[in-house]
Specification:
The complex is a heterodimer. Helices cover 28% and strands 18% of the residues of chain A. By secondary structure, chain A is α/β, with parallel strands linked by helices. Among the domains of chain A are: 4-78, Ubiquitin-like (UB roll) (Roll); 109-274, Alpha-Beta Plaits; 357-479, Dimethylsulfoxide Reductase, domain 2, CATH 3.40.228.10. In chain A, a hairpin with a 2-residue loop joins strand 11 and strand 12 (244-250). In chain A, helix 11 (417-428) crosses helix 13 (442-455). By secondary structure, chain B is an alpha/beta fold. Chain B folds into five domains: 9-141, 3-Layer(aba) Sandwich (Glutaredoxin), CATH 3.40.30; 163-372, NADH-ubiquinone oxidoreductase 51kDa subunit (Rossmann fold, 3-Layer(aba) Sandwich), CATH 3.40.50; 382-468, Ubiquitin-like (UB roll); 471-562 and 635-648, de novo design (two linked rop proteins); 571-627, Alpha-Beta Plaits (2-Layer Sandwich). Chain B contains 25 helices and 18 strands. The radius of gyration of chain B is 28 Å and the shape is globular. Chain B starts with 6 loop residues before the first helix and ends in a 23-residue tail after the last strand. Classes of the chains: A alpha/beta, B alpha/beta.
């Protein structure tokens, strides 16, 4: 632990770690120093001049965001002089900011208004001059209007910090602006449309296109949820306005892993509005899709189930409670073939491994994974790792192909990962002679990585599921091994489901049963070979097209429950929108089917999820020959993630 | 060039070269030292040098033609100094080449028509008529009051020739420091010399070095700030162009003293010749083993690189400069932390101005006492200034600290051009201020200039005469700041914009009552809240002109009158009583505002664009300029934090 420093801020005694800045130090005792340009987890830049504070012994006020605490500092955050300074700066900013708050949707959450009203500035005392202009860059995601920009630079820093480097400061003096070279479009500059820039914009210079014209943000109802689009399962905040979903943003919560959301997570709800949402069951008769009602659909299904030789599959896109409901249903109806799709790419052991926190890692060893924001392969993971490295964590990359993160890595070794891990494991347990470290042979580079591992306090191994056992074998017990699943609740499904009694998921999909029911969207667009296929999912696409009966299902923000994310942490979803008419939840479907089959269903209690989520066996070192071989090839696995990429790309055209 | 492996080898080489030169000066062969600084090059000195070589070859006279750095008297360029006689020829053209070879190179005779003579009749009759033209540098009034410690070597050095520098005791200071002094002793010597930063703020160099030495972090870095952006300033350019090795030597000593391993020279993009010459010098120094690893066999390692600026004024601010070297946008960062603690790539960095660094070899070689013998109590040594504006002799001068402004203007500069009246002196560039004519007896040093609202700055002196409008001067600098502000902080970005807007409306005759007070209030608040030195000092030109010339502002605002007749306000009238109807004014008027009536000529005030052409052309000077532009001053006003209403409105 870093030693603490004691100081006084506005009369409060404050004790904070060395290296804390005054702004954050003040926050620990509830003193809010006004600020516009400070960006959490980034170094302060002292640009906005509003966080000026006075320090005893200093001639002039200093910016709180750039001043680090020192022992016995005496800080005053509010005085007549500071108020005058802040008022002056705000007055200047307002003199070039459009005085059109009446039609601005940011009112209520706008930082500039907040301080303007705090310092009681109505209209700027200077003559208003319109500086900059609305940017013409048609795209369905981000609207830029430089007239509103206050040049705090948060968007530029966050864009650079996460490695996308699209936005930059351009020009000088009053003509300074934020933009792209020669006013080219964001798309042409390699923007991934993650919207992080919009997230941090304190005013309405940047805004999400989907929410334009949908009321003021202050009127939105905000609910915590989780993005279910990929294995990252990013925590989100879902905003609704009059029961309509209008905005999704990253959950601002200090102890959550990420403040990053990719374009799919942020704008996915909007993109998928174009797809066919199911609100009534569909059945296929002689190759033609027909709408049907629930009674008919469920009757057909129950008749199929009565015939026996049926199977149930839980995909990694449904919530823990729904998995348990499915298990209850299976038990009551004595359908013994119950499996989860995560088993297609990861061993049960890997998915049930103990939880870990990447946030605390000082060394990240990335095995066989190539996260990339541009390629939309675990973009959030890419952003988190970059953010960790910026904050001082070290990165080691073991992969057989060059990775995008390789440039940031302390050590990048490119070869067959299992072989590398064996060599790494041997080194990690040894004392490494100094003279080896300077050499450039592969053995020396592996030794260098092992040296970093030995020195690390909190190393975390993050691997592609296929390398789980090799990773466990390599490092034994120092530091957790996390597998990166491809579905949001893959780990939840593995933890909630009992071990498969008869057929596994792969066998079920390959025609092991006559009747197969799939709950949730199956990301793998596999050809399902079964006599009769029932799919329940929100949209009419993917595997549903091969089905005989398709049942509508609620979307993630229409339900309440939990998931277990890639780090093994339990995350909550709250219902934000009502379930649309015609859509039934999984539990409703099971209970009606149960009645038709003449079974009594006893739903598991709420705490069953927590109990099940805690059953984490310790990793065991095993012979690699018994290792898990995934049913899907790596290419197929990564392809799953890129499917949504197509959605983003199409909408940009 | 062979690598020098020890300090003795360096001494032997320098002695051998000096002997060679002494021998040569005894011989018949004469040398012509042609100033090839940027100003003389623009005047054609490269062509002159080429012509001289050709002429020498043609006539068979053994002559050495050497291209040197800037000799200072740029107004009279191209300049040539002949050796061993020491004649100074000015305004040399290619047509003079044959004569110079035939007279001077062959026989040691002077070419008299090229000697310096006063330009105007008055000084000619006063000074030159009895004494004749000035033959040698030391005779010229321009050089007489100067004390050239740094610049003098320019006369004796071809920038591309390291041997010339070695003959001038070059690298002797480095050798002395490495051989006989510990790094703390070097710092003590620099501290004792009282050398203060020549970049403008005057921070003691020794303290900065000490702070860098004591800072934690390896490797340490020395940065030379050659981003000389003040309008009209070119001191550092002439040093970098003319004597690049002295800069390298200064940096090497700084590196040795502060414990640094690497050095960077940040040169502005507009100085290609400086970059070229420094590059050559770096290659030579590396070849000689004066740079790199194990310098002169002492185990001291130091490497220097050049970094080219991209044309931003703000990059002269040290934190912005460091950001620029790192490849970031040139945004300043708040201090503390100071670069000495956390500079380039967060490493301890000692950043000094070019002129500060070239003073170092002199201090180490001759001792702190000799250096501090020159100057005032708190400002030691000499200072280089770029003299510009309405003055007879413009150019580069080096004067002892404590010299009066009057001496600079009248003795060195030769007084005001066209015998106009001195109005003020702008010193210190966009961060400096205007000193009015009645204060020109002020001593030039860091502290006295501060008391009158100016700063030493990097060394630009602009002389203003009665034709210069002080409001326009303030506007010029504020426009400059507005253009060059990096825009990071609102006080500088928006504050300077509003100040420039107010100044613009004043110079356009649309000033409002209370504008001056509004400017003052804005200026003080900008000084308080801006992020970097540039923003904090940007209002200085406005504040100092208001301080000394408030009535000029008031005239602009209240009477629409600019006493310098430089702003396009006021009313131009023809005195029909005295007019002898020559019609010249009508002929030249670009706006067709002069109307011919039965009584003579009249100016149509609606058409008049106040361009002053008729006023200048009138042979009997009967066109008068009256206050007021025919429009009543505006009475609808919103001002500052509190409205001020015009009396009687």
């Amino acid at each position: 632990m870093e030693p603490n420093v004691k100081l006084t801020i506005d009369g409060y005694a404050v004790t904070v770690p060395v290296g804390t800045n005054l702004l954050e130090a003040a926050q620990t005792v509830g003193v809010e120093i006004p600020h516009l340009c400070y960006l959490k987890s980034f170094l302060g830049i002292g640009a906005c001049r509003i966080c000026l504070v006075e320090i005893a012994g200093f001639r002039a006020p200093v910016t709180a965001c750039t001043t680090l605490v020192q022992a016995d500092m005496l800080v005053i955050t509010d005085s007549a002089r500071l108020r005058a300074d802040r008022k002056f700066v705000l007055d200047l900013i307002l003199s070039v900011h459009p005085p059109r708050c009446g039609q601005c949707e940011k009112v209520g959450v706008c930082q500039l208004i907040k301080y303007a009203s705090k310092y009681r500035i109505g209209k700027s005392t200077f003559e208003y001059t319109e500086i900059g202009q609305a940017v013409t860059d048609p795209n369905p995601f981000i609207r830029r209007d430089m007239r509103y920009c206050i040049l705090c630079g948060k968007c530029v820093r966050i864009c650079q910090g996460q490695g996308t480097n699209v936005l930059a400061f351009l020009g000088r003096g009053i003509k300074l602006g934020v933009g792209t070279p020669a006013a080219s479009s964001l798309k042409d500059n390699g923007c991934t449309f993650c919207g992080s820039c919009v997230e941090v914009c304190p005013v309405s210079a940047l805004a999400e296109v989907p929410k334009l014209g949908k009321g003021r943000e202050i009127k939105y109802t905000k609910t915590a949820s989780v993005c279910m689009q990929c294995g990252n399962a990013c925590p989100t905040q879902v905003a609704t306005y009059e029961d309509e979903l209008v905005k999704v943003n990253a959950l601002d919560n200090a102890d959550q892993t990420t403040g990053y959301l990719c374009a799919v997570g942020r704008f996915g709800f909007y993109l998928r509005q174009g797809e066919k949402r199911l609100t009534t069951p569909l059945k296929k008769s002689s190759g033609i899709w027909q709408e049907t009602d629930w009674t008919e659909a469920l009757t057909i299904i129950s008749q199929r189930f009565k015939k026996g030789n049926s199977g149930l599959i839980a995909t990694g896109t449904i919530l823990n409670q729904e998995v348990l409901d499915l298990a209850t249903f299976a038990q009551a109806t004595q359908i013994s073939n119950l499996a989860g799709t995560p088993a297609l790419y990861a061993s049960n052991e890997a998915l049930r491994a103990p939880a870990a926190q990447l946030e605390q890692a000082d060394l990240i060893i990335l095995v066989g994974l190539n996260p990339s924001q541009q390629q939309r392969v675990f973009p959030a993971l890419d952003a988190v790792i970059k953010s960790r490295v910026r904050q001082g964590a070290k990165l080691v990359v073991l992969n057989d192909v060059a990775t995008g993160l390789g440039a940031l890595a302390e050590v990048e070794i490119l070869d067959e990962p299992v072989m590398l891990l064996e060599a790494f494991g041997r080194c990690a347990g040894m004392s490494i002679p100094q003279d080896v470290l300077g050499a450039t042979t592969q053995a020396a580079i592996i030794a260098k990585a092992a040296k970093l591992y030995q020195a690390a306090q909190n190393p975390v191994l993050l691997c592609e599921p296929a390398y789980y056992q090799a990773c466990v074998n390599a490092i034994g017990n120092k530091g957790p091994v996390l597998v990166m699943p491809y579905e949001a609740n893959a780990k939840g499904v593995a933890l909630m489901l009992p071990a498969p009694e008869q057929l596994n998921c792969r066998e079920l999909l390959n025609g092991g049963v006559d009747t197969l029911y799939i709950a949730g969207e199956m990301l793998a667009g596999k050809n399902v070979q079964t006599d009769f296929l029932i799919v329940q999912q929100p949209y009419f696409n993917g595997v549903a097209l091969q089905a005989d009966i398709v049942l509508p299902a609620p979307l993630p923000w229409e339900k309440t429950g939990t998931v277990v994310d890639w780090q093994g942490q339990l995350k909550n979803l709250q219902q934000a929108c009502p379930v649309p008419p015609g859509v039934k939840t999984y539990r409703q479907v099971f209970s009606e089917l149960g009645q038709m089959l003449g079974c009594r269903l006893e739903w598991t209690a709420e705490d069953a999820v927590i109990a099940a989520a805690q059953l984490r066996p310790e990793p065991v070192v095993r012979e690699l020959s018994t290792a898990f071989t995934p049913a899907l090839s790596l290419v197929e696995r990564v392809k799953l993630l890129k499917e949504l990429n197509g959605l983003v790309a199409r909408s940009l055209e | 060039m062979a690598k020098l492996n020890s300090i003795d080898e360096l001494k032997n080489l320098s002695n051998a070269l000096a002997g060679e030169q002494a021998q040569q000066s005894g011989s018949e062969k004469r040398s012509l030292w042609v100033c090839c600084g940027t100003a003389c090059r623009a005047g054609g000195s490269l062509e002159v040098a080429a012509e001289l070589e050709e002429a020498a070859e043609k006539s068979g006279v053994p002559t050495e033609v050497v291209s040197t750095g800037c000799l200072g008297m740029c107004q009279k360029g191209p300049l040539i100094k002949t050796m061993p006689e020491g004649y100074l020829y000015q305004k040399v053209k290619t047509k003079h080449a044959d004569k110079i070879i035939n007279y001077t190179a062959k026989a040691g005779l002077p070419v008299r028509e090229l000697f310096y003579r006063a330009d105007d009749l008055e000084s000619y009759y006063r000074d030159d008529i009895f004494s004749g033209p000035k033959e040698k540098i030391a005779d010229l009034p321009f050089y007489k009051k100067q004390q050239r410690i740094i610049l003098e070597a320019n006369e004796r050095i071809a920038p591309g020739n390291v041997h010339h520098y070695l003959v001038q005791a070059g690298y002797a200071a480095l050798a002395k420091a490495l051989a006989t002094m510990t790094p703390p002793a070097v710092i003590t010597e620099v501290t004792k010399s009282g050398l203060r930063g020549r970049g403008g703020a005057g921070f003691p160099a020794g303290l900065k070095w000490q702070a860098t030495r004591q800072a934690e972090g390896e490797p340490k870095i020395v940065v030379a700030n050659g981003d000389e952006g003040d309008p009209g300033a070119f001191m550092d350019r002439s040093i970098m162009e003319g004597n690049p090795h002295s800069l390298l030597e200064g940096m090497l000593i700084a590196g040795y003293a502060t414990g640094a391993r690497y050095g960077f020279i940040y040169v502005r993009h507009e100085y290609p010749l400086a970059m070229q010459n420094i590059n050559t010098a770096i290659v030579q120094a590396c070849e000689l083993g004066l740079m790199g690893t194990n310098i002169l066999g002492t185990g001291f390692d130091f490497d220097i690189w050049i970094r080219e600026g991209a044309g931003a004024f703000v990059c002269g601010e040290e934190t912005a400069l460091l950001a620029s070297i790192e490849g970031q946008r040139g945004f300043p960062n708040p201090k503390p932390p100071f670069p000495a603690e956390r500079g380039l790539w967060s490493l301890p960095t000692c950043i000094n101005n070019i002129e500060t660094l070239v003073n170092i070899p002199h201090i180490i070689r001759s001792g702190a006492d000799k250096f501090s013998a020159v100057g005032t109590e708190k400002s030691k040594g000499t200072k280089v200034f770029a003299l510009a504006g309405k003055i007879k002799n413009t150019g580069l001068i080096e004067v002892p600290m404590g010299i009066s402004l009057r001496e600079i203007i009248y003795d060195i500069g030769g007084g005001i051009k066209n015998n106009k009246k001195l109005k003020a002196v702008q010193i210190g560039g966009p961060s400096g201020g205007c000193i009015p004519a009645d204060l020109i007896d002020i001593k030039i040093d860091f502290d006295s200039l501060g008391t009158v609202g100016a700063i030493m700055g990097s060394g630009g002196i602009i002389v203003l005469d009665e034709d210069d409008c002080m409001v326009s001067i303030a506007k010029y600098f504020m426009d400059f700041i507005q253009e060059e502000s990096c825009g990071k902080c609102p006080p500088c970005r928006v504050g300077s914009y509003h100040m420039a807007a107010i100044l613009t409306r004043i110079t356009e005759g649309a000033g409002l009552v209370g504008d001056v007070e509004k400017l003052e209030a804005l200026a003080h608040k900008m000084q308080e809240s801006a992020l970097c030195g540039l923003g904090k000092t940007a209002p200085n030109p406005v504040l100092s002109t208001i301080r000394y010339f408030r009535e000029e502002y008031q005239e602009h605002i209240n009477q629409q009158y600019c006493r310098a007749l430089s702003c396009r306000i006021s009313t131009y009238l023809i005195d029909t009583q005295k007019c002898f109807v020559c019609g010249l004014c009508k002929k030249v008027c670009p706006a067709d505002a002069v109307i011919e009536t039965s009584d003579g000529f009249e100016i149509d005030q609606d058409k008049c664009i106040k361009c002053k052409v008729c006023y200048n052309v009138c042979p009997i000077k009967i066109i008068t300029v009256e206050p007021g532009n025919g429009v009543e001053p505006s009475s609808q006003i919103t001002i500052g934090t509190k409205g001020v209403l015009r009396d009687g409105a």
